[in-house]
Amino acid sequence: MNNGKNPFNIEKFYKSYLNAPKIFKNQNALDSTYIPEELPHRDNEIRMIAEKTACALRGDTPPNFLCYGRTGTGKTATIRYVSQKLAQQIIKNKPWWIYINCNLLSTPYRILAHIYNTISGKERIPPTGLPKDVIFKKLLGLLDQKVGSTICFLVLDEIDLLIEKTGGNEILYLLTRLNENLDYCRTSLIGISNKLKFNQSLDPRVQSSLGKEPPIVFHPYNAKQLGDILMERAKVAFYDNVLNDDVIHLCAALAAKDDGDARKALQLLRKAGEIAANSQHKVVKEKHVYEAHDELEKDHVEEYMLGMPLQAQIVLTAIFLINKFKPEYIITSGDIYEVHSELANKISGIKQLTKRMISDYVNELTLSGIISADIRSLGYYGRTKIISLDVDMVLVEKTLKQNEKIRNFLNYKPILLQSDKVLIKNNIFKKLI
DNA sequence: TATCCACAGGAAATCAGGGTGT
DNA sequence: ACACCCTGATTTCCTGTGGATA
Q1: I want to staple A209 with a disulfide (CB 3.0 to 4.6 A). Which of A176, A294, A309, A393 is the partner?
Q2: Which segments of A163-310 are extended strands (E)?
Q3: How far is the CA of A383 from the C1' of C17 (A)?
C-alpha cells in the first residue's frame, strides 16, 4: 500500500535483489518443517519412540502413545525423523505414515476423509455431504485392501485442539477402535499435544487406549541446546563466514528466554539473515538479530490480526475506536457490544451480533494477547470485563487499514462516546477501580 | 443484609451454505 | 426433486456471580 505516491519500481527491485550479497545457501534449512540429518539433544526421545515403533518392522502392532511438550520442543520433528529412519529399513511391507494436523482438520468427518484420501491417492471423498459412518466403513475397506497386512501410523498433531472443539472424543474413539474392525491392516495412533494435562479431558475409553503407554515428554531446550540446533542448521542454510560469531548465541539466548522454542529461534536467525541481505550487508550482525526480534513480534501480531474472522476484526475496531477518541475511557464488554452494533449497521453485509457472541470474540482476542480483559465486579454497576488494548495503536490501525470493509471507519467517532450519561457513569467506574 | 446490576459463559438449538445418493 | 448429511457461525435460553447501594 503506497497510495501511488511512491510507485514500486519492480525493475529496480529485481536488480538489487540479484545484486544483494549472497547470504543464504539453502534457506529451507531454517524452516521448522525441515528435517535435518541429525537432531541434537533429542536422543532419549528418539530412542523411546524408536523402541515403541520398531515392532512395525516385524509386522506387529505398535502401541498407541502420546507425546507432550510445548511448541518448539521438537515433537513433530522427532516423529518425522524416526518415521524417515524407519522407512529407510529394508523390509517388504513399509509402514504407512499419515499426518493429521488437527489445527487444520478439526472435525471427525474431515479427519476420516483426509486419511482416506491420503491412502487412496486419488478417489476423493468430497469435503462434505456423506454420513460419517459411511466414510468410516469405506475407510475400513480401503485400509484392509490397500494397506493390507502392514502397519499404518496415524499421527495426530496438535491433538489437544481436537478436544476443545466438540466431537473430539468421538473421532478419537473411532480411531482407537479401528483395529477391532479391521481384518488385515493394523493401525497405531501417535498423539502430539502441546498441553500436559490434555488427557484429563478425554473419554475414559479413549484414555485407556491412548494412555496405556507412558507418554513421551519433550522438555524445552535451554540456550546451549538451542545454540547447537542453530549451529547445525546454519551450516546448511548460510554460506561460510556470513554470520558474526555471536549471532547464533544471541538468537539462542533470546529464544531461550521465550520458553526455549526452537521454532522461534530458527525464525529469528532467518529473519536476521533476511534483514542483513535486504540492507545490502555481507555479514549478519548482532544488530540484525535485535531488529529481527522486534520485527517478528510485530509480524506475528499483524499476521494473527489479519487472519482473524471479519467479525473479530470489527470487535477489535470497536476497541480501537474507543481508545482513539477517549484514551482514558474504561472499556467494558457492554461498550464493545454497543460500538460493534454501531459499526455493524454502517458496514454493508455485516450482521449485528448478540452480546453472547461479542463475549466469545473478546475471549479470543484475550487469548491471543492482543487485548487483556479483567473480570471486575463494579457492585451496583454489575460485573463485567474491563478491557484494554495490549498492542501498539499504530500497528492496529495499520493492520485494520488493510481491510477494505473496515478501512473507511477508522475515523468514526462512536455515538456511545457522545452520550453524557455514559461518560458520567464511566467516571464513576474510574473511582471504583 | 437483601437486592440488583451487567454481565460471564455453558448447553442446546437454529440457520445458511456446502454437499450426497436415489 | 427430495430427503438427508456435515460444518461453522450464531442465537436462544439459561444459571451463576461479586460487591455497591438502598
Answers
A1: A176
A2: 186-193, 216-218
A3: 8
Q: What is the pLDDT of residues A189-232, one digit of tens each?
A: 999 998 877 777 788 888 888 888 999 999 999 999 999 999 99
The C-alpha atoms of residue A365 and residue A341 are separated, in whole angstroms, by 18
Same-domain status, A248 and A327? no
The A 103-132 residues near strand B by Cβ under 7 Å are: 126-130
**Whose CA is closest to A216, among A82, A80, A52, A62?**
A52
Q: Closest by alpha carbon to A74, among A233, A254, A292?
A: A233
- Find the Å distance, CA of residue A191 to C1' of nucleotide C6: 25
In sequence order, the β-bridge partners of residue A375 are A385
How far, in Å, are A50, A95, A189, A361, A364 from residue A58 at the CA level? 13, 10, 18, 51, 47
Q: Give the distance, in angstroms, between residue A420 CA and nucleotide C21 C1'.
A: 22
Strand B positions within 7 A of protein Cβ atoms: 4-11, 17-21
Domain range enclosing A258:
225-298
Residue A363 domain-assigned? yes
Question: Tell me, in Å, how far CA of A17 is from C1' of B13?
Answer: 57
Mean pLDDT for back-to-back runs of 10 residues, chain A (433 residues): 69 82 87 88 95 91 94 93 90 88 90 92 81 92 87 93 77 90 92 83 83 92 94 91 89 91 94 90 91 93 94 97 96 97 94 96 96 94 95 96 94 95 93 86
Whole-prediction pTM value?
Answer: 0.87
Alpha-carbon dihedral A31, A34, A37, A40, rounded to 10 degrees: 60
- Residue A38: inside a domain, yes or no? no
